[in-house]
């Protein structure tokens, strides 16, 4: 990623991160509306979709997803950023392994994240490409880790 791309990522990220729980909730609401079976993995699986935005556990998870991205975007451009990204996203992968989340499910969430960012930040085509590059990169760390754990599903 060049310095213009880096600056664009950091600048556009200011919008969703200003209201982290609401931004995460927007992503997760869209995710569960489109892929309702993903809900089965969560402790709030029995809560009706329309009540999720008010559910504390749902909001906690929404905020956590944003925090992982925030931590990643903060380190971008610093010395040792790649190692730090490896560390952050390997931890995400390892923590999720007992939950048996499929790559397909991760990819479904990936699409929703990119769509939500595009809408919230009003990204143009080239900005979308750069964001996609970043999300693909962190996802490659998740999938590498899942493969190495020998627990791919
Ligand atoms: C960008 C991808 C993702 C990120 C950054 C992320 C982040 C997190 C974090 C930080 C936690 C809390 C720490 C932990 O317990 O490990 C968590 C928990 C969890 N994640 Fe994810 N996650 C991602 C994708 C997914 C996907 C695709 C699913 C399944 C459809 C999923 C299901 C869960 C579940 C079931 C929990 C436990 C929730 C709870 O106990 O309240 N995650 N995630």
Automatic annotation (TrEMBL):
PROSITE patterns: GLOBIN. Transmembrane segments: none annotated. Residues 1-147 form the Globin domain. GO terms for cellular component: plasma membrane. Keywords: Heme, Iron, Metal-binding, Oxygen transport, Transport. One of its GO terms (molecular function) is oxygen binding. Pfam families: Globin (PF00042). Belongs to the globin family. This is Uncharacterized protein, isoform A. It comes from Drosophila mojavensis.
